[in-house]
Design brief:
4 copies of one chain form a homotetramer. Chain A is of the alpha+beta class. Chain A has a single domain, classed as Chorismate synthase AroC (Chorismate synthase, AroC fold). In chain A, 26% of the residues lie in helices and 22% in strands. In chain A, strands 1-2-3-7-4 form a 5-stranded antiparallel β-sheet. In chain A, strands 9-8-10-16-11 form a 5-stranded antiparallel β-sheet. In chain A, a hairpin with a 5-residue loop joins strand 17 and strand 18. Chains in contact: A-B, A-C, A-D, B-C, B-D, C-D. Strand 11 of chain A pairs antiparallel with strand 11 of chain B, so a sheet runs across the interface.
């Protein structure tokens, strides 16, 4: 089945493998008239680029993006935008060995069964490099959302057992430490924890949190196309995500109605507000006008240098050590991927919401 | 935007409101030749029917299903299957009051903003009754999956703070207690907890777990159409779900690679197995041949009789008490909804997997 | 494969067979706030109802429509609209004979091969009664289009060899003769021709023309989603259509650039006009602001009482005569079906066009 | 709206403009295991390449295709196939003049209204160069169809008033004359006709016919997804197509049931056959096992050097002559585009047909 397209109106299709000629994305349905340059996109790609710190793979890639179509005289034309990054530092021979066995925590075996064989070079289509297309498209979506007064901000909220302290939350800090944590103290502790993991040839899981501000109420649909459902799918489509929650999330299951309900009130300025935001900004699948807040749990990088037991293609039990250029933690580079996926979903649903009311449609066409 | 259709190949579209003439569903893309009767479907609907216990609404509904099309001489014909349940015990006047204000934890305000007005009778399209269509379709999907050797089993794993003990797990028990818990002791504790909630005019959240057995490896797609992503969306599209996790789920974020990786081994019979199932049966977005295990967190029923603060349509701060026929907990009746949604996703992806390999396609058409 | 859904934003899904319990349609994505009653829809259904004249089947059906959901206090709510017509005069035994053989010009054999068996009662899903759902949905789309200043008008332009004379064109005449022709003289000749066909136990083909007025320029997309391409598919999805053309149509292939190009000019009022409309209102897949004009060719009714040669299910050559309640010509009752399909496509594309320009999107959300 | 994707299972998305950096296509959903090289694709692209004869534009382009992803060790992997052709001979300044006015027969004005401005270089997204992506994808689909025993063959059946004589039909001849006509005599006459057009700075329309052999019965769906409807849309999505017909086509409207019905018979070998093929191989929207035969009418090239009246952006009446590098007829180069679009549709529907019958699905998964 096709499976590389996201979105109903602002449609994004990614292509490319870890060790092929490049990675790319087509955006179909981008409105005309958005000023767009390669720099706009590069800024986002640089946040997921390898080699930013000692916690990321040593693979050398500029990830320099090229706009191949859909932009004319500095503005989007309304026709498909094709974006591409060339792979440069692919070293396929690193992978000749892993072609012979099934790595624990990877999808190697699933590929072999599904397709009859697999592109064993660096995870092929399951490589983290596939997310380049998502981030490039996410940069475009984010720029468009800004024009509509909407901002999306993701950050690392936990690395292994180290979690941020909400009291120390400082948005400025996010871009200052290599782990993209909004709490300098937690970031230091997390780095110590990672050093220990690396010494043990091990890896760590972590958590990404995301806050979306400025979304008007009423975005999202009542039944299957709930806004939180679409966010859940988009975030779960990022490799290594094992859990997704919104607002109080898993804790809501241990709560009561009196605790969990967000009542409305009229504040001193006569504005309608919610007392609290246990819902995380979405009720009944529709935005309620408050900040949308969600979290995603990432599993630890499966490629580790410590010895592991598994089987080879000949059906023999073997022990392996996976050397090569792997991140000891996926989370810091995944932050911008989460932000991008959220932006893509929110934009797509904003556009979809324009056809909901006859009064507004008539007004639109009467001008 | 349209938002009432689920699935790419086995496509399900629901319609109907809480207090309209009825609730229904169309299944388009159901393979021809499946024996199907109204009894097959009724069995599933009875598990979500109101009035099963003192923990469910007192609204009286048979929820008797009628097959309107797509079945001829007891078998599906391959054309759209239309299923309908008539609403019988709608008492719209119960709701004349709530038309005037915005209930905390409900989507009332979102509807008003999105559509300009709302069907205020019993939640309209956001009513739990919308899930009748999902369960009716899920019954058909489940029957078809059985023909392919696949079973789906959901149950309540927690009610408020009361969780099942894995050591007491007994599948037979699920259908024996009104809470659909696979642990008789936990079920008793949970009932006591609910009694307390009801006394306080309060409600409780809870957790549903689901196990899918028999899915071959390789189902699901690498990028956006990961099997776990599709499950996440489908489950999150059920009203009141606030969290979704698969396998180790949120805990994976606190784990390490050595702990979390599932190594393969060859067992004494020469069969390939996984040492463990931290992945919950899906790796890289594709099934890995093991049981698929996921959990969903449900928030507490928002309609409670205890006094709550909110605002009315005139923009005044008010205090309300919501009387009427509401479940003190959503979870037990949601169990079969979770099971149905899982069945719909798995079947849809199974069918999609048939076009993945040229060798199998050639074989298919050569006969 | 699913195949009963039309449209991207205004989505229509039909269900039901000729001799099942009924026929219906769900509209998902209809904007909220459209005043809608059963009478609005019935008016359209009456135009395709059987028994209007001696040129239509004698099957007795009121085709009385019921609105089952999606309308509250006389207005659409924005949620799925479910519409249903009960079958009343199904006489399945009429068809016990045709279960045994393959009717020339029908899809009987295709069904048997595709699905393994077929619902042989009156064409099953291929019956003309399937168009009830299309017309019911088309009535809703037409009402909404009227609010946007757009009208759709179809009529019979030829019956067998009898074509209308453009000089006699009279829109008022369309609803006055049983053949829905806008030329009273041609209508009379056509009736004589049909009498002859009926005497010979034969049937006739014909042509439907459709004019859509008021569509602004720029509706439709450049590549695969051209407006004329979408119209072509929608019209070709009506059973018995064998040809579709727009503007000069097939004749354009025999024309030259100098003849076929529609130049622009500024008229005496300073308005931009086209000199001519060879394009039929669509250029480059987008509406150009002029009337959209297309034609569809219908084959003759395949069910005829004259003797025909064919084979039975046992693989024997046989001769048959098909008696029963069949229209000697499909075209007059197809007029409203063509009109409905055109309305569905135009509305869907109008709604889609709202997300094309950033300047208009910003304006939309700033209010 | 997005509009650059075709297909449900074998999904093709094109991108690129006439004078941008290049033109490309992504194929998502191509089964794994198909041997595929750049040569396989180049062969098809060469048939639509400019500069093949004096009847095609003098723009110099190799149209050399590059496979960027989805192929590993010479076989498709089942993941997205990205194909690209770099533009080389774009001379944008040729177009600085046409930026100022609206060319008759072109979509210039529609673009300006739809998007607020346009990429005026060579037709932008409406350029014939957009079909490069279609042909590249069509080459892949055709190769896959061959593995399933299906062939698609298109050719020019008329140029202006010159039509092929069925008695002279010679398939071998198609690739021998620059007009891709299967009748050498007609090809010569057509060339004379074109010389005359060129002398008059005029252009000609024409007709393409296509025969698809080997499609089993039962491909296509009963209601909206009829196989002929999908073909109609795909072919109508090629720029300049104004009419589409299948089998007897427009003539069926002038026919009677006795003439038009295709009866079945058992031939001397005991095989079931159709007496005739008025249906063109599709009945009730499903293939009937016979050759599928359709025709498309193309309008004349709108860009002509003869003087024409139109208006400029300032709203003034002007007279223009369009010089530059334009084909005097679109049809010969469109032949391979028609063939490609037909292959894409047939393959997509073949794959979709695999999920129609439960007996075959069970058999598929039991192996």
């Amino acid at each position: 089945m096709y499976g590389s397209t996201l979105g109903n109106i602002f449609r994004v299709s990614t292509w490319g493998e870890s060790h092929g000629k490049g990675i790319g994305v087509i955006i179909d349905g981008c409105p005309a008239g958005l000023p767009l340059s390669e720099e706009d996109i590069q800024e986002y790609l640089n946040r997921r680029k390898p080699g930013q710190s000692r916690y990321t793979t040593k693979r050398q890639e500029d990830d320099a993006v090229e706009i191949l179509s859909g932009v004319f005289e500095g503005k989007t034309t309304g026709t498909p935008i094709s974006l591409m990054v060339h792979n440069k530092d692919q070293r396929s021979k690193d992978y000749s060995e892993i072609a012979q066995y099934y790595r624990p925590g990877h999808a190697d075996l699933n590929y072999d069964i599904k397709y009859g064989f697999r592109d064993y070079r660096g995870g092929g289509r399951s490589s983290g490099r596939e997310t380049i297309g998502r981030v490039a498209a996410g940069a475009v979506a984010s720029k468009l959302l800004k024009e509509l007064g909407i901002s999306v901000c993701a950050y690392t909220s936990a690395i292994g057992p180290v979690t941020i302290n909400p009291n120390n939350f400082n948005k400025e800090e996010i871009q200052k430490n290599p782990l993209y944590m909004p709490d300098a103290q937690a970031a230091e502790k997390a780095q110590n924890y990672l050093e220990q993991c690396m010494k043990e040839c091990n890896s760590s899981g972590g958590m990404v949190e995301c806050i979306i501000s400025g979304v008007p109420a009423g975005i999202g649909e009542p039944a299957f196309e709930k806004l939180d459902a679409a966010l859940a799918k988009a975030i779960f489509s990022i490799g290594a995500v094992k859990g997704f929650e919104i607002g109080d999330g898993m804790n809501a299951s241990r709560s009561t109605g009196l605790q969990n309900n967000d009542g409305y009130c009229i504040d001193e300025n006569g504005c309608r507000q919610k007392h609290s935001n246990h819902s995380g900004g979405i009720t009944g699948g529709m935005s309620d006008g408050c900040d949308i807040v969600f979290r995603a749990a990432f599993k630890p990088t499966p490629s580790i240098a410590a010895p592991q037991k598994t089987v080879n293609r000949q059906g023999e039990n073997i022990e392996i050590e996976i050397h090569g250029r792997h991140d000891p933690i996926i989370v810091p580079r995944a932050v911008v991927v989460v932000e991008s996926m959220a932006a893509l979903v929110i934009l797509d649903f904003m556009l979809a919401s324009m056809t909901t009311r006859l009064d507004k449609i008539k007004e639109f066409f009467q001008k």
